[in-house]
Amino acid sequence: HDAAPLRYKMTPRRRRRSTQPRLSLLRNLFVSTVVPVLLLCQNIAFAKIFESKKRKLARLQAELAKLEEERLEGLVVFFGYEFDKLGFYTATSIFLVLFVASIVQLSRSRRKWKRLAIFGGEDSTKSTEDRTGWLSSKRNISLLIAASIFSYYVIFNLGRATKSSIGDIRPRKRGSLVDTQMFVLVFGTYQLDEKTFYSLLVASMVVLVALGYNIGIICRKLQEKRSKHKQITKENALPKEDVIDVIVVDCGLPKKDIGWFHLMQFLDMSNINVRAVVEPFYLDKGKCPQPPQSFVDLVSVLLDLNVECVKSLGQLDPCQRKTLCVLAGRTDKNPQYFRECIGLGATHIYLEPPGSASVGELEKMSNVANVRGVQVFMGYQRACSPYIEKAVAFSKSIPKCHVFFCHNENYFKEDLHRVLNRHPEGMIRSTASQDLAVLVTQFGVTTDTVKAFKCNTNQLFSEKQIFCNRANGDEVSDFSRVAFKITTTTGRNVSVMADRCGGIVSFAVVKSIAGKEIKKFLSPDGDSASRIEDELKRDTEMMHQFTIEGEDYMELKRRVVDSILGKEGDSMSPKSIITIQDGIEVLRLS
Q1: Residues 248 and 263 sit within 8 Å (Cβ to Cβ)
Q2: CB 3.0–4.6 Å: which of 29, 498, 523, 554 could bond 431 by disulfide?
Q3: Residue 22: its pLDDT value, please?
Q4: pTM confidence score
Q5: Which residues of 464-498 are buried (b: 16+ CB within 10 A; e: fewer)?
Q6: Sign of torsion, CA 53 59 63 68?
Q7: How confident is the model at residue 270 (pLDDT cuts 50, 70, 90)?
Q8: Is the pLDDT of residue 113 over 60?
Q9: Under a CB-based contact definition with an 8 Å cutoff, are residues 500 and 488 in contact?
Q10: 251 phi and psi, to 5 degrees?
Q11: pLDDT tens track for 280-297
């Protein structure tokens, strides 16, 4: 106890930090996040485990329908078969394009072109690659491309467009949880995808159009077959000696050349059998590798009518019966055609005026024809015109009179260089020669009977122009209009005026010696002039003179055929048919 008591040093006690706030925060976070998730998963699992069979079946059906809809988004079901959507619509578009192409091809069938060849085709002077008409190659290709693009776009998007426009209105199928907005109910039983349905609808329309067109072609063929049978029966009823074979030499292009116009008129004559057509340029692949489409169609029609189409007369068999060869070539080629036709055995020849480039050549042709016994007619159709015949008959009733003939053509001034290229012999030997033929045959005017000749130099009546030949660059001069007066040794006074740009009306005037008009004859007159003007406006491709003088051309052909068959009527004047002897005198006068 004596020991000193121990003294402890009192140290301050450290205060422990409380963990109560941290635990509280974690507990709150756990309660607010994890517990709800666990409870949600528990509820979902519990709902799936303990959900009713009906609800579970409906849920599974909905899920399957959704999966099937997603799968069908990239497929097309066609008659129970599944196809890739892009491939299906591409194939459908190709199918439609083929149908369009077949319709275009059927529209250019021979039977349809028979009518088009007779009345001509559009842009017939242009080659195939230059043509821009409805049936040109470029237009057909553009049409097919446009049809394919349009069909593809419409077929691929029509179902979607329809869905977006009426999707909110179309109900679900009753009693089913599957959305039926993507389907179309057909015949009340079958369901088709909208795109497939509209694809089939468009294809069906094209098929129906093609089927209807084919039915129309079949009906037209049957009708033509019946009419052809009637025509054959009618031809067989005629004796063989009453039918004349016709060969058209240098046919040319539809609506543009006189050979084609002669061919069309001869095809309309019942006692004519068009045997062959000779075209040395467009049927020669070496000279013309790609002929105009209008000529190609014309050839197909002629072949369908059993008309031979050759490039030279040497390809034809010798003539077996009465044969009329129509020479419609250029003036410098006609003498060669003339000799070939006689060598072929032609019995008659129709020669387009002036016949040859010189009087001497035409005389040689006449001598050859006389030796071989071939009768040659000249194509001066003006001599058969009613107004000419009336004026001549009226002038003969007046002992002393002056007859004035005015021959007008309907060309435009800017087209005169083309006219000169088509008639290089000049205006005097082409247009004015028609009236010179009337003077030779009706008034006895020849180079020996001309007492006085006077040309009216007034520019209103006579005008000479200089044209440039675009082929070789040479300058060529020719009349655009000319007027002259002839006095014969017998005291006859006749005047002729020809005007390439004078219009559609030509006339003849009978005057007294003092120059007073007694009577005037027009062609065409009255209603005929109005009708011709309407035809010219309606068909701008046809050569105007074919429309204006078509009746005169046909009348001359009738008289030539009747002369060959020996059926000249009392009313037909023998002077209205110009022979090669008269043609020689006309060429001398010109």
Answers
A1: yes
A2: 498
A3: 57
A4: 0.63
A5: eeebeeeeeeeeeebbbbbbbbbbbeeebbbbbbb
A6: positive
A7: confident
A8: no
A9: no
A10: -70, -45
A11: 999 998 999 999 999 999
